[in-house]
Design goal:
The protein has 145 residues and is an alpha+beta fold. It has one domain. The chain is built from five helices and six strands, in the order αββαααββββα. The radius of gyration is 19 Å and the shape is globular. The mean pLDDT is 84.
Length: 145
């Protein structure tokens, strides 16, 4: 009997893990150049953003509902279309002190900022962007005010 309970727990854990990890991971890296600067590297399942979108506070959500209704369809379409493109540079801005690079990299978007003070890098899977926008669009469409 104990073996069946353990097996059930294991199967449930594997199924939940597969669900949470299905969209890949969001990578965030912040390295400050200062002597005792922060060096922060975070990798989290991208599905957490979609799950969190379900729990968006209704009051805060209502404040931005009009803007969301206008922007979310474009965000979803952008994620779909970018997924079809080969890896490429989308935006690059360089001045005397900073360099910002936004790329389609693999199945995600990479955003890098480099300055004398810090180097920041973020990578987000396109599928997670689409899924999160879809959840928010459903909430905006339902009039959760």
């Amino acid at each position: 009997m104990l073996g069946k309970i353990a097996l059930g727990f294991l199967v449930t854990t594997v199924a939940c893990s597969a669900y949470v990890l299905q969209d890949g991971f969001v990578h965030v890296s912040v390295d400050e150049s200062a002597k005792n600067g922060t060096h922060l590297h975070i990798i989290v399942p991208a599905e957490l953003a979609t799950i969190a979108a379900h729990f968006a506070p209704p009051k805060k959500f209502a404040e931005h509902q009009r803007e969301l209704r206008a922007l979310l369809p474009a965000l979803k379409l952008s994620a779909q279309e970018l997924a079809k493109l080969p890896d490429s540079v989308l935006v690059e801005v360089r001045d005397a002190h900073e360099h910002v690079l936004i790329c389609k990299a693999g199945d995600g978007i990479s955003i890098e900022e480099e300055s004398p003070k810090e180097h920041v890098k973020v990578w987000v899977p396109l599928h997670a962007i689409y899924d999160t926008a879809e959840v928010l669009q459903e909430k905006a469409g339902n009039g959760t005010e």
